[in-house]
TrEMBL record:
<keyword id="KW-0255">Endonuclease</keyword>
<protein>
    <submittedName>
        <fullName>DDE superfamily endonuclease</fullName>
    </submittedName>
</protein>
<feature type="domain" description="Tc1-like transposase DDE">
    <location>
        <begin position="34"/>
        <end position="168"/>
    </location>
</feature>
<dbReference type="InterPro" id="IPR036397">
    <property type="entry name" value="RNaseH_sf"/>
</dbReference>
<dbReference type="Pfam" id="PF13358">
    <property type="entry name" value="DDE_3"/>
</dbReference>
<dbReference type="GO" id="GO:0003676">
    <property type="term" value="F:nucleic acid binding"/>
</dbReference>
<dbReference type="InterPro" id="IPR012337">
    <property type="entry name" value="RNaseH-like_sf"/>
</dbReference>
<keyword id="KW-0540">Nuclease</keyword>
<dbReference type="InterPro" id="IPR038717">
    <property type="entry name" value="Tc1-like_DDE_dom"/>
</dbReference>
<dbReference type="InterPro" id="IPR047655">
    <property type="entry name" value="Transpos_IS630-like"/>
</dbReference>
<keyword id="KW-0378">Hydrolase</keyword>
<dbReference type="GO" id="GO:0004519">
    <property type="term" value="F:endonuclease activity"/>
</dbReference>
Length: 216
């Protein structure tokens, strides 16, 4: 992971404590379970996306100049398993606590008998009482990122790769077409996945004892 040249000042008084908790999960995954990094990606709307592609010389691909939002937007809820590097995901019309809870149930079913450490941000659906009660009853421990700490979540880098390989230079005419492109990329990626190790090992964040407003 690359260092961050500029960071927004956090209002979280426990930023350092929470950050070191996240780093410890990267460095020393608990023996009694799995560490899963979760976040939402989107909104996935049907718009033309610029990008680069191989084309015959002087024959660029033409994209629509305009588009409409008649088909609404979708949202991707995804989970990155630290032990395997594989991604599990759902694409849904909304990203409420119900959808997030359904994702956690799917993760729970995939790894029965293991405690799940779910690393996520402070989005309200993640903290909903129903979600937290279900997590407590099913040996799932939410580990919340510090405020303005989304860059500590490795899945953010995976979203950047998804955008680059599956969405850039596209002009999908429907959500089914777009979802298929995403599924094809995730399938390709997961067959090549490896355990995630070595998060920001040379970064100055490793020596922080206080949260700076800027990293030069």
């Amino acid at each position: 992971m690359a260092d961050h040249d500029h960071l927004e000042a956090s209002t979280d008084p426990d930023f350092i404590t929470k950050m070191h908790r996240i780093l410890d999960l990267y460095d020393h995954p608990p023996a009694d379970g799995r560490v899963i990094y979760v976040d939402e990606f989107g909104p996935l709307n049907l718009m033309t996306r610029k990008g680069k592609a191989w084309r015959p010389l002087a024959k660029p691909r033409r994209l629509r100049a305009t588009y409409n939002r008649n088909d609404g937007v979708m949202h991707m809820l995804a989970a990155l398993d630290l032990a395997t590097g594989r991604i599990t995901y759902r694409i849904r019309p909304r990203k409420r606590h119900r959808e997030f809870g359904d994702l956690l149930k799917a993760l729970r079913a995939r790894w029965p008998g293991q405690k799940l450490y779910i690393v996520c941000d402070n989005l309200s659906p993640h903290r909903h009482p129903t979600v937290r009660a279900s997590a407590a009853a099913n040996d799932v421990e939410p580990v919340f990122l510090p405020t303005y700490g989304s860059w500590l979540n490795w899945i953010e880098a995976e979203f950047a790769a998804l955008r680059y390989f599956a969405l850039n230079d596209t002009d999908h005419r429907g959500h089914t077409e777009q979802n298929t492109a995403i599924a094809d990329y995730i399938r390709w990626r997961n067959t090549r996945a490896q355990p995630k190790t070595g998060f920001a090992t040379d970064s100055p964040i490793r020596t922080w004892t206080d949260y700076p407003t800027k990293v030069a």
